[in-house]
Design a protein that fits this description.
With 357 residues, the protein is of the alpha+beta class. 47% of the residues lie in helices and 23% in strands. Among the domains are: 57 residues, RNA polymerase II/Efflux pump adaptor protein, barrel-sandwich hybrid domain (OB fold (Dihydrolipoamide Acetyltransferase, E2P), Beta Barrel); 133 residues, Helix Hairpins (Orthogonal Bundle), CATH 1.10.287.
């Protein structure tokens, strides 16, 4: 009886240990796994709020017209200085020729005015000297006529005639008139500097006119150059919104050029920035290309959270306040993992992991 009872009690005791062993194994596995994960992630910061970023340029024409030739297509790879499209330039060629003709005419008028100024600088002083000489001559003539008239009046009336007296009076009056005329001409001739200044002003006016015509010519030359749109840098054509034969307006967005110079913008939580510094290594995983292994480094940390630079930043100085964890953009520069001419589309989701220790 005793032996059978001991055997029966041993069997249940053994069966109760199995769940305990399983539970202990699970706990041990969790502890080991958690410890391994902690060791693996210790000294790193990661976020899935990150995306590829880069430089872009919107290509727009500075002159209007019909697209004469289009040398690009969607997602075309272009080089800096490459001709992308050409606008019909005939109107601008005509405007350039007209400006050139206007400039040539203004230059001819300026040359003539300069010659007239040179002549004026000699002519007007000479005219003043001549006018002064004429005044002196008229005064001498008047003095002679006056002397003759006085002498004739003092002569015995029987030795002269009334006709002679009248002629002498007329000669004196005529001499007075000639003197008055010579003096008037002298006053006019004395405006030497005014006349020269007027000629100089005409030259300056035409010089300004030539400068304006030269500026117009240069502007038409610039506009003529604007009919050819070239790539400002190497990149890829995206968001193309133009076709050959289309009429384009000044400032119209034709397409966007994406530069190969790209980086990762990662929005880390503010609590993750305590030990993050520029220069720290970063491993980047790209959702679209899981086999692509990219390495980089922290370039800079934005001096302000993302919400601070929104159009309507939050105003917390009212009533109840609820703390919201902020995120700060961090720029991560790609060091390796991409081929020389390889680039990633902008806006792809990535997961950067920063080694902070």
């Amino acid at each position: 009886m005793t032996a059978s009872t001991d055997a029966g009690s041993a069997a249940p005791r053994k069966s109760n240990r199995v769940p305990q062993i399983v539970f202990a194994s699970v706990v041990a596995a969790l502890v080991i796994g958690g410890g391994a994960y902690w060791l693996a992630t210790r000294g790193t910061e990661s976020t899935d709020d990150a995306y590829t970023d880069g430089r872009t340029a919107t290509i727009s024409p500075k002159v209007a017209g019909y697209v004469r030739s289009l040398n690009i297509s969607d997602n075309t790879r272009v080089k800096a200085g490459q001709l992308l499209l050409e606008i019909d330039s005939r109107d601008y060629v005509t405007a350039h020729a007209k400006s050139q003709a206007t400039l040539d005419l203004d230059k001819a008028q300026l040359d003539s005015a300069r010659v007239q100024l040179s002549i004026a600088q000699v002519r007007y002083p000479a005219e003043l000297a001549s006018a002064r000489a004429s005044v002196e001559s008229a005064r001498a003539a008047l003095a002679r006529a006056h002397a003759d008239h006085d002498r004739l009046r003092k002569v015995d009336p029987r030795a002269t005639t009334q006709t002679q007296i009248d002629a002498s009076t007329e000669s004196e009056l005529n001499a007075q008139a000639q003197l008055a005329d010579a003096q008037a001409k002298q006053r006019t001739a004395e405006l030497v500097q005014d006349n020269i200044d007027a000629a100089q002003a005409q030259v300056k006016q035409l010089e300004a006119q030539v400068a304006a015509a030269q500026a117009d010519l240069e502007q038409t030359d610039i506009n003529l150059g604007y009919t050819k749109l070239v790539a400002p840098f190497d990149g890829w054509v995206t968001k193309r919104n133009v076709e050959q034969g289309s009429y384009v307006q000044v400032g119209q967005s034709l397409f966007t050029l994406v530069s190969p110079d790209m980086w990762v913008t990662a929005n880390f939580k503010e609590a993750q920035l305590a030990e993050m510094r520029p220069g720290q290594k970063v491993a980047v995983e790209v959702d679209a290309f899981p086999n692509l292994k990219i390495e980089g480094h922290v370039d800079s940390i934005q001096m302000g959270s993302g919400s601070r630079f929104t159009a309507f930043p939050a105003e917390n100085a009212t009533g109840n306040y609820v703390k919201i964890v902020q995120r700060v953009p961090v720029k991560i520069v790609i060091d390796k993992g991409l081929e020389k001419d390889q680039a990633l589309p902008l806006g792809l989701s990535v997961v950067p992991t920063v080694t902070t220790k």
